[in-house]
Write a structure and sequence with these properties.
Layout (H helix, E strand, L loop, with lengths): L4 H11 L8 E3 L1 H7 L2 E6 L10 H9 L3 H6 L1 E4 L3 H12 L4 E5 L5 H9 L3 E4 L4 H15 L2 E2 L6 H17 L5 E5 L4 H13 L4 E7 L4 H7 L21 H10 L2 E5 L1 H14 L6 H12 L1 H4 L3 E6 L6 H14 L3 E9 L4 H11 L3 E8 L9 E9 L3 H13 L4 E3 L7
Parallel strand pairs: 2-10, 3-4, 3-6, 4-5, 7-8, 7-10, 8-9
Antiparallel strand pairs: 1-2, 11-13, 11-14, 12-13
Length: 406
């Protein structure tokens, strides 16, 4: 059964007071960068850091007393797991969560904190799902699907009710797609309330499962992505039909674009956002002409990013933008040479973060040395200025490999 606007409104009434009514906020700095007017729907501010608790709560509120006593089971890479566990604990429903073995530690720990029994099984969601279905049959548990369920779709659709109440003049809404539950609910609600609005989906280029399913292409999903929340190989059947009818297009974004979007949301919007939650911004920044001058709603779907990964993404972003650079400087190995190099870098406005001598390798003459210096800079132009200043002073200098484009 495909839910309708009335079902989504009913879902909104059911979850009122139990789920955060998240804000929809403009971001002028990101809007200038993107060349359009952006409104961010901040689902990363939910209690569990994700929209997923909306649908999970609607589903669990529909259970009979007997089903509640027996308990529920879910499979998830993290956010759906936390949504189920959070409200199961609140409603005194026993919960078992099956998560892929590579699920980020932060999502595993937070799920367990809500009192759920967490089982790590399989390399991905498909294997986790099969194992969860087996346990559900064995232990008579109610399976709470992460996306392919009318009640889940209705619950996720409440995001659109709130967004359009806050920003009724939007021209389009950009939504991340994993299994398709979120974009299906949003598309049903938004197109019913505002028929002319355009709904666009975003998938990571490594996991284009929904796009391939709609086009009838052979599936190719696989690989390491920072958007594990939408790294789904088997899209929903119910959601696929809804997306086919109501979604205008699905855009693909690569890993550098996702990393850039996570960094821009942190720097320019002061938001901690996971890869899947940053995917809509990544799509807009990668397709500026398509969105130029339009009023665009971005669903910031989640903020559950591992701290170590966030730190790595932010540092890689600084390197990509030329704000941290590794320089190799050829010097004469005698007193004062290192001080002279450091003085030149400092006089040019660079800040040395790390420095190492390379004296022992055969490609370095015995009376010379290489200095590898990690330097904080303003931008790529500043890097070129540093290299030119050192070269002019007689120190052969080159930039070591970076993550910068080109």
């Amino acid at each position: 059964m495909t839910p309708a606007l009335a079902d989504i409104r009913d879902a909104a009434r059911q979850i009122a007071g139990a789920v955060v009514r998240t804000p929809s906020v403009p971001c002028n700095r990101l809007s200038r960068l993107a060349g359009c007017t952006l409104t961010l729907k901040l689902e990363n501010l939910q209690d569990i850091g994700s929209f997923k608790q909306r649908g999970a709560l609607v589903k669990m509120l529909s259970l009979t007393p007997g089903q509640r006593r027996a308990g529920v089971i879910a499979m998830s890479a993290g956010n759906h797991a936390q949504g189920v566990a959070f409200h199961a604990q609140r409603l005194s429903i026993p919960a078992t969560i099956v998560m892929p073995e590579a699920t980020p530690f932060t999502k595993v720990e937070r799920t367990a904190e809500f009192g759920a029994r967490v089982i790590l099984h399989g390399e991905g969601l498909d294997q986790a799902a099969a194992f969860a279905a087996e346990l559900a049959r064995k232990d008579n548990l109610t399976f709470v699907h992460p996306y392919d369920d009318p009640m889940i779709v209705a619950g996720q659709g409440t995001v659109a009710l709130e967004l359009l109440e806050d920003a009724p003049d939007l021209d389009c809404i950009v939504v991340p797609i994993g299994g398709g539950g979120l974009i299906s609910g949003i598309a049903i609600a938004a197109r019913a309330l505002k028929p002319g609005i355009e709904i666009l989906g975003v998938q990571t280029a490594l996991y284009p499962a929904m796009l391939q399913a709609l086009r009838g292409n052979q599936p190719t999903s696989g690989g390491e992505t920072i958007a594990e929340g939408i790294a789904v190989k088997s899209p929903g059947v119910l959601t696929r039909a809804i997306i086919k009818d109501l979604v205008a297009d699905i855009l693909l974004v690569d890993e550098p674009a996702l990393e850039q979007a996570v960094m821009k949301l942190a720097e320019d919007a002061k938001l901690v956002v996971e890869g899947a939650g940053a995917a809509p911004l990544a799509a807009v920044l990668a397709n500026r002409e398509r969105f130029a001058g339009r009023k665009v709603g971005l669903i910031v779907a989640g903020g559950n990013i591992d701290s170590r990964l966030l730190g790595s993404v932010l540092m890689r972003g600084l390197v990509r933008e030329g704000r941290v650079v590794s320089l190799r400087v050829d010097i004469t190995d005698r007193p004062g040479s290192l001080a002279q190099v450091a003085g030149l870098i400092g006089a040019c406005g660079g800040n040395i973060m790390e420095i190492h001598h390379q004296r022992l390798f055969c490609d370095v003459p015995a009376k010379r040395a290489d200095i590898d210096a990690v330097v904080e800079t303003r931008n790529a132009d500043h890097v070129r200025e540093l290299v030119d200043r050192l070269t002019a002073a007689g120190f052969r200098t080159r930039v070591l490999g970076t993550t910068a484009d080109g």
